[in-house]
């Protein structure tokens, strides 16, 4: 029996899903697979695990697992459910890429979808689970799609061994036909339970005109108007990224000051954070070897499905201290009513995220400025007005070359309707769309599933490690494009992760995994980087490769200085900082072979110097490093060290905080290792005689692209222009730029 508090009980009774408990439980008892559809906020995520728990699904050795595409949701939902059930975090726990609080007593486990995928590699039958719930299936994250495909096969297998597993797929009320009407996936169509949404009407207001680019300013003006002119009720604003969210928060706080919340509170928290860092550092110091239990600490494929994370790191922090809105006519103070402004995005610290669920201080109006995490993963109570900029920030990949860029694009109609729906949870509401109805009519109906528009080599390697050789026959809810599959298979063969067998060449895309590939699949990084790790045992290079791979995986170690400054003083400060960073980078990249390692040597130097200094916020600030990124590099180094130790027994490897720079010989060897992983990312400087066109000046030619590519100005090799280089990635901004560049001499 669950002992809930009266307030919780009362709140639960208001949720539409509670009326369906019996119907849902009967369907689950009688069917191995059930689909539950219900409007966001109807109570799926928080209540279904409780129904199962109360129906005894965890009583005889077996637990309930729930996957979420976003880390925010996994953490916050486990906390909420623990609280509702009055159970400890030892029983209702979570596990995400880098952390978790799972124990032997855990009975309900929230996790990111990537975590469960890794668990399938260790135990294909998922024997510790009685029930697996795939949540937010409508988001169509790549790992969620794959999990559904795999589980469609695991469920019958579990039936065979007489240890039945229940699969529950939960989704907002969006296109579920890809799951239910796909008989390659489920040969028997699973029952679909619709949870009646007690949705109040939402009046949608379109702008007459669509602002060309300043949708942020338009949001500001709209919120001001709502706040000054409309009756009470919370406001939820949808923007695209973390920097935008912060900037709008500051602007609104200035316009409608609310003393306690504004400044004091944030300061308090940062003091608190620093104190915590200090404490955790003390603890770290006593353990030289990071103790990470791999069984309890699932390693996860790169880019664990959390597109927010990706979309936000590129401008992370950059804007957070700068006020971009001085001298704006609108922002004069207004004393009418304080606005209680809160930011919400994926990377926000959990304590700060939790604030949006608490009622605002009396006499204030709540205004949450969010990225699209608020679209379906989290339901904020008391929202009556939604302001929708109509945009989302996404990472785009070229299907063949893998060239990526961040782009802000229009959302789909389905997303726009989800966003509008957030206004009608507790009473009739209003949604202000900052674009015209004509523009809306041009939106795609639905956003494309993630698997159809990103490179899939990491996914294919994971699948091959599960002995799924004919990837093409896999029951994908939506298959990736054939050319992406072919490109992935080709790359994996080139890296030696797959065996290329003659007789199988006719039947393309069915090469089995090689022993090297198996080792590579155990590393939680992209296949190219996994190859580098697998090669590094010789010449004592492993610690360096691990560090370089960690740095390349975390990305964006350095602060961005090319941001708009608000004052001359700041311009000077930024300039000074940038000059200093360039100087340090040169020192880090050293001489001779070290220098040729280029940007990768800079990354190595940055991590080395930072750890040597104890990885303090102060050191990072002084040297233009992003503190958060450095902490993440530290965790990943620990994790990779453990993974390498268990893949290649007794290397005796540990993470040395006082790692010396590599020797000349090691640096030379490191360049070969890097070339082995990035062999297809080779670029050759355009020769003088080929220089027919001005646009090829200082340009490089790659195998994949017809257009010229350039070394990014932030690279230490920018001026040196070596003849051959390999690059980590090509990013398209004003030109095609190579980033993470290192010089090589191909044989
Ligand atoms: P769904 O999964 O169907 O979208 P949820 O189970 O996430 O719905 O949410 C049900 C209700 O629980 C919502 O009204 C939401 O506001 C509330 N809720 C969720 N998390 C919290 C929290 N941490 N604190 C307070 N209320 C919460
Ligand atoms: Mg949910």
Automatic annotation (TrEMBL):
One of its GO terms (cellular component) is nucleolus. Residues 300-331 are annotated as: Disordered. The keyword ATP-binding applies. Residues 222-467 form the Helicase C-terminal domain. Residues 303-331 have a biased composition (Acidic residues). One of its GO terms (molecular function) is ATP binding. Keywords: ATP-binding, Helicase, Hydrolase, Nucleotide-binding. The keyword Nucleotide-binding applies. GO terms for biological process: maturation of SSU-rRNA from tricistronic rRNA transcript (SSU-rRNA, 5.8S rRNA, LSU-rRNA). Residues 25-192 form the Helicase ATP-binding domain. This is DEAH-box helicase 37. The chain holds residues 33 to 779 of 964 of the full protein.
